[in-house]
Amino acid sequence: xxxxxxxxxxxxxxxxxxxxxxxxxxxxxxxxxxxxxxxxxxxxxxxxxxxxxxxxxxxxxxxxxxxxxxxxxxxxxxxxxxxxxxxxxxxxxxxxxxxxxxxxxxxxxxxxxxxxxxxxxxxxxxxxxxxxxxxxxxxxxxxxxxxxxxxxxxxxxxxxxxxxxxxxxxxxxxxxxxxxxxxxxxxxxxxxxxxxxxxxxxxxxxxxxxxxxxxxxxxxxxxxxxxxxxxxxxxxxxxxxxxxxxxxxxxxxxxxxxxxxxxxxxxxxxxxxxxxxxxxxxxxxxxxxxxxxxxxxxxxxxxxxxxxxxxxxxxxxxxxxxxxxxxxxxxxxxxxxxxxxxxxxxxxxxxxxxxxxxxxxxxxxxxxxxxxxxxxxxxxxxxxxxxxxxxxxxxxxxxxxxxxxxxxxxxxxxxxxxxxxxxxxxxxxxxxxxxxxxxxxxxxxxxxxxxxxxxxxxxxxxxxxxxxxxxxxxxxxxxxxxxxxxxxxxxxxxxxxxxxxxxxxxxxxxxxxxxxxxxxxxxxxxxxxxxxxxxx
Length: 536
What we know:
By secondary structure, the protein is α/β, with parallel strands linked by helices. It has 17 helices and 16 strands. The strands form 4 sheets. It has an 8-stranded parallel β-barrel, surrounded by 8 helices. The protein has a 3-stranded antiparallel β-sheet with strand order 11-12-13, with helices on one face. Helix 2 (49-58) links the parallel strand 2 and strand 3 (67-73). Helix 1 packs across helix 2 (49-58), helix 15 crosses helix 17 and helix 16 packs parallel to helix 17. The chain is elongated and about 90 Å long. The N and C termini lie far apart (62 Å).
């Protein structure tokens, strides 16, 4: 069995844009435990208040699967093991597993520790012997092992043998600089296994500086490694660590190893998003296996083939890892894309002619700069308008936006007025905002909330602006993508395009509001909707 060792809470937090509170780390640890990882490296006890707090809090959590490990370094040369504050903090952390790192590269011994090679071996041996007598399991991270092996093979192996003599349960070979390519790494692992014997448990810890961390980790397993270290979403210093979100499904689905409980693998996408959310990072749509685009199909030929058999353009079933298939609508779309999306939304396209009309409209609009890949709500509205299943929730009478700046040292004052009509009632409202789009959004909502109180539950979750024709300067065409969200966590995207950014924003705002109320009524088509009065 391959053991998964997660170091998101320690090595992952060394990324420059990641910072986790103690409570954040506890929540992630609980989620990792529920998913089925074997070891969770909690941090470096005693090194900072957050890690100290984490180890105090995690004592009160009943872990079902995982063992929490404490991390640290070998003792300082001048300290006896029992006097070394780092080793004492590991023992006092209250966990049963420890992982300590030591220097295996002679270059580091001379230039970082400034001690002799023999003294470094003594430090490794003493530190591990001290911990192995007090902990249930002790792992040894051979820092910079592959660089050390290439520079001084005999000494790098000597550090492993020192750790083995002192009771290390697993010797973890670390590519700390991330510069070792997969073919080099596996050749060195084979030599280590010959030198150390097959009974020695070996682990792998790879950084992603050469963009090969996942490949190296998978190949390491094929060459006898039994413990794989990495982080969720590849978090880590510099270019990150080996990404467990890719490693786990590759090992389990494609390579046949028993890694996590099979029933938990479908929770992989949810775990990935959860860790990003807690870390205050936007989830990467292009991440393998779990990204929103991982099983997204845009080309018409692809979509047609996937409808016949998903294996034509999908390497696994998306649902196996908790993801789903998506069909994108763009100027590359064919009839298959339109039909697929219509079926997804339970829309009746009617005749072949109507389908062709929708396709033509999409291609014409994308020629003008519209993009429906991230604006599927606008696409659904387009289909309903084309097939006569659309009923506007208000009649537009006009809007005005004013920006006034009275003092150089203060921001401008922005005010928007909106006039609409609902069921014969004219509503004329005004609002101020942080900018023209904010003011316009507030004025529109103020006008509509009288008729549609549930609008208060809709918020703007994201707002993106893209300049499409930069060669035209300030008169360039602008595309606005808006993501809206309701109180149930549902999200939908809308799009607007114009040479005027306010007009483009207005288009996307209106689509976002009308889509919500259209979905509230149901996605089917009422023949009486065509040319009907606004909703009341």
